[in-house]
Design goal:
By secondary structure, the protein is mostly helical. The chain is 51% helix and 8% strand. It has a single domain, classed as Glycosyltransferase (Alpha/alpha barrel). It has a 3-stranded antiparallel β-sheet with strand order 5-6-7, with no helix packed on it. A hairpin with a 4-residue loop joins strand 3 and strand 4.
């Protein structure tokens, strides 16, 4: 009887286990990447076609009614959608994508002459930089050189940085403001310096990166958003975080810009100090107790309403793209850890939680980004630069695979 009861118990247990819904095996990462790129292509073609009759407009976000909000070439995000189209063309070699990429790239051509905006690098290198990389069209190359000449007019040798904002009403509190985002514009200068054999471009980029490394970061390698400099002494006169929760908080996208910026500086210039800085920033982000399990950060690592605080997909996408590249510059466990986090971020961003429905969300690819929380603008909406760095991360991961 005892053996019979044991046998019956085993059979019942086996039956129960067999009837319990089993967790589905995780989809291969290569499939996630390819499916996400295919969706991004469909959505971006819809976006491109939606603005075909507005030849000076580019996508920015959506408004409170869910309608597409556009911008002119002068707005800092204008170069991102052309860049998305170029990445997608690189992936599929679809002539339709190339035609649209060319169309939207030319919409920002006038920004090569802009000297009152530190984001010329974003505008021109995300668009014309990718265009030249994929086509070798000399006309694109010349635009990048002109834009680089324009950008360095904002450099102050005493400060050692490129000025970010001019004297807009909301920025008059700062004498010479430099934001961490400005690290991203240095890529164009370094590329142009090497391509056109112009040491001035390289010197400006290197000096800006070194000054930022000295003054923008706290002891734990988190970053302020804005450092304002005294132009007479070249020393900081204010350290603020304009788009974060507080001046001493770690605004998520600011941390992402810093990480990406120093990974890029190491790639382009090979200085080990830049690699060390990138690793320190990455370790701050990945070891932060407020980084969620799915690795998409809250809009600020110190937001007071965590865990209910809004996430920022744009920060997640930028960090993801940077970590994929950084994993190739370090070895062993660090490399594996960075790549594992990037994979988790890609899987999260490619899930139904963050990926838009086809033809919805203004035809943007990702949902749930935060632009400027303290200002109450672009809150929990798609953002064109979130799409750009997400597609870039997908392409980088695909190349690794």
């Amino acid at each position: 009887m005892k053996h019979l009861r044991t046998t019956i118990s085993i059979l019942i247990l086996a039956f129960v286990i067999g009837c319990t819904p089993q967790e589905k095996p995780e989809k291969p990462l290569s499939k996630v990447v390819n499916e996400s790129l295919a969706f991004a292509e469909k959505q971006s073609l819809l976006m491109a076609q939606s603005l075909k009759d507005q030849p000076t407009r580019l996508p920015k976000t959506i408004d409170q009614q869910g309608e597409l909000e556009t911008c002119g070439s002068e707005w800092w995000v204008s170069g991102f959608f052309p860049g998305v189209l170029w990445y997608l063309y690189e992936n599929s070699n679809d002539k339709q994508l190339k035609d649209w990429a060319t169309n939207y790239t030319l919409r920002v051509e006038d920004q090569q002459y802009t000297t009152d905006n530190h984001d010329v690098g974003f505008m021109i290198f995300c668009s014309f930089g990718n265009a030249y990389r994929l086509t070798n069209n000399e006309a694109y190359k010349k635009v990048i050189e002109t834009a680089s000449e324009s950008l360095i007019t904002r450099f102050n040798p005493m400060v050692g940085c490129i000025r970010s904002w001019d004297e807009a009403p909301w920025s008059k509190q700062w004498e010479f403001p430099v934001i961490i985002d400005n690290m991203m514009n240095l890529e164009m200068l370094l590329w142009a310096g090497k391509t056109f054999d112009n040491p001035e471009f390289i010197k400006v980029a290197e000096t800006h990166a070194n000054t930022t490394m000295k003054h923008h970061f706290r002891d734990d390698f988190s970053s302020y958003h804005v450092i304002s400099y005294d132009t007479l002494t070249g020393e900081p006169e204010a350290k603020h975080t304009a788009q974060g929760y507080s001046h001493e908080s770690a605004w998520a996208r600011g941390q992402a810009w810093g990480l990406y910026g120093y990974v890029m500086m190491y790639r382009e210039w090979g200085n080990q100090a830049y690699l060390k800085q990138a690793v320190n920033i990455a370790d701050f982000i990945l070891n932060h107790p407020n980084l969620p399990e799915d690795k998409i950060p809250y809009w600020d690592f110190n937001a007071p309403d965590i865990p209910e605080a809004l996430r920022d997909a744009s920060a997640g996408a930028i960090i993801c793209s940077a970590l994929i590249e950084l994993s190739g510059y370090v070895s062993g466990k660090k490399s594996a850890d960075y790549l594992a986090v990037a994979e988790k971020q890609l899987r999260t961003l490619s899930s139904r939680e963050y990926l838009a429905d086809l033809g919805k969300s203004g035809n943007f690819i990702l949902k749930h980004s935060v632009g400027h929380m303290p200002n109450g603008t672009e809150i929990d909406v798609p953002l064109t630069y979130a799409d750009y760095y997400y597609v870039e991360a997908l392409m980088r991961m695909k190349k690794l695979q």
